[in-house]
Amino acid sequence: MSETNRLSANASPAVEHFDVLIVGAGISGIGAVHHLREQCPGKSFAILETKESFGGTWRTHTYPGVRSDSDLYTFGYRFKPWTGAPVAQADTILDYMADAIEDDQTDEHIRYQHQVLKASWSSEDQLWHVEATKTDTDETVRFSCNFLWMCQGYYRHSEGYTPDFKGLEDFKGKIVHPQTWPADLDYKGKRVVVIGSGATAATLIPNLADDCSHVTMLQRSPTYFWTGENRNELADSLRELEVPEEWVHEIVRRSLLKEQREIQEMSASHPEMVKEGLLSVIREHVGDDFDIDTHFTPSYRPWQQRIAYVPNGDLFKSIASGKVTVVTDGIDRLTEKGILTQSGQELEADIIVTATGFNLSVMGDIKFDVDGESVDFGNTITYRGIMNSGVPNMAAMFGYFRTSWTMRVDLVSDFVCRLLNHMDEKDALSCTPTVADKDRTMEQRPWIDPEEFNPGYMQRSLHLMPKQGDREPWILNANYFVEKDELPVANLDDGSLVFEARVITAAAS
Ligand SMILES: Cc1cc2nc3c(=O)[nH]c(=O)nc-3n(C[C@H](O)[C@H](O)[C@H](O)COP(=O)(O)OP(=O)(O)OC[C@H]3O[C@@H](n4cnc5c(N)ncnc54)[C@H](O)[C@@H]3O)c2cc1C
């Protein structure tokens, strides 16, 4: 359907129609648009986005020092060279995305302050009917589309996860979650306890340390970190040779991916060796007297959870300087003055920062139904980690965790565009992943194997995520190195996608 033909024959005139509606203007949604424009040039499309601006994660998080924890050569898109330092601050990532939006003239297609609340598939119309609320006016606006492309991320942006600590109301100081960091928070000269030791805590702590009177990192259990200089030697050498930026981007991406693959494979085959390598670098920063066993030696093997990168060892330098103390202990309760740990230590604080993670959001908390029957995604089976059994004409973007999220954005976009073109070639109006009778009894597995990847937000809500089967194409292959070869050649006509063709009636023909 062309850009000008915006009103569907089956949609009421008050309903704006697009071939493709994208939900979310984060790094996934902006990437999806690039590929859609390039690979499906005739399709009309719009992005619906709750926030006032693009960026998703990089707009929501505003705590001091907020930055990526993987390198931007692989977190950046394959089509847009990254020219800065490998680990980047949120504002630099937003600048990169702003450039991508300008390059593709995406801005005019984004409807900001449009929160999608409901999506209903009608088999009679062969369309999605989508309802959104304009967050500035509370007005309900309606759209229809042939294909719905979910780029909503994986966590609820409105608030982070804070465990239900005993005594929360007793604490006389301020409690802050990094996801909703107050712009006017005055932490200068204050005693701050940061609960948590994930990537957020590791970023925040060295960025607070210089201004606070003291910072305590309170963790229930240790996390793995890796560290190094925030520069890429290969990129620097290529630039010295005046190699064009497009080449630098591609070469450095390939080299980093090769390195990551080797480390991940080694983490599975020789976990003790990888563990020792990670710990020895930390030891160099904090010194031999520091109790590495208690504070930095996790009980799980490397890469079972994402390993946060600490550029230039800043976290460890602030520990070595004495500005930051690490306490590894459970929380008994909050008190008037701070936190009482399970071992009986009271940590006094003016501010407590709960870097305790996310609330998982399944499909942007949108209510879905197919022909009036509500969709519980926890009861669907994933089709290649992109579509869902019984849900027509809908794809969802879920990136990698071990490799940069965006590496999958490019691959899934290629797949969705190929599918859209395939549907056009077949003159198909709909495409529904459908488990064949012979596969109905296959074993159902969780979205992600907790043995492989087990962050708290996923463990708390795994039952809400789609299931996997035990065979292709009903699995989420969370491995870039396998998917990069398999996804581009995945057979769309193996029977697991059921296409419904346009019916040409005598009157219409
Ligand atoms: C601090 C931090 C650092 C991170 N660093 C890295 C890293 O270095 N490397 C890495 O691979 N990953 C990293 N991640 C994970 C990161 O979230 C993802 O990699 C990536 O940014 C997700 O992009 P996204 O566009 O898919 O989702 P998001 O960034 O979550 O964006 C989704 C967008 O969809 C919108 N939306 C959601 N629901 C609706 C709805 N119902 N209606 C309308 N709009 C909706 C949201 O408002 C949001 O703008 C990090 C995460 C955090 C929090």
What does the model show?
- Helix content is 28%, strand content 21%.
- It has 509 residues and is of the alpha/beta class.
- Mean pLDDT is 94; it is low at 1-5.
Distance between the termini: 18 Å
Question: What ranges have pLDDT less than 50 throughout 5 or more consecutive residues?
Answer: 1-5
Strand count: 23
Report the structural category. alpha/beta
The major β-sheet equals: 9 strands, mixed
CATH class value of the largest domain:
Alpha Beta
Cα gyration radius (Å): 24 Å
Provide the domain count. Answer: 2
Bound molecules: flavin-adenine dinucleotide
Q: What is CATH's topology name of the largest domain? A: FAD/NAD(P)-binding domain
What's the pLDDT, averaged over the residues?
94
Tell me what portion of residues adopts beta-strand conformation.
15-25%
Q: What's the CATH architecture of the largest domain?
A: 3-Layer(bba) Sandwich
Into which percent range does the helicity of residues fall?
Answer: 25-40%
CATH superfamily of the largest domain: FAD/NAD(P)-binding domain
> What would the principal axes of the Cα set say about the shape?
globular
Number of helices: 13
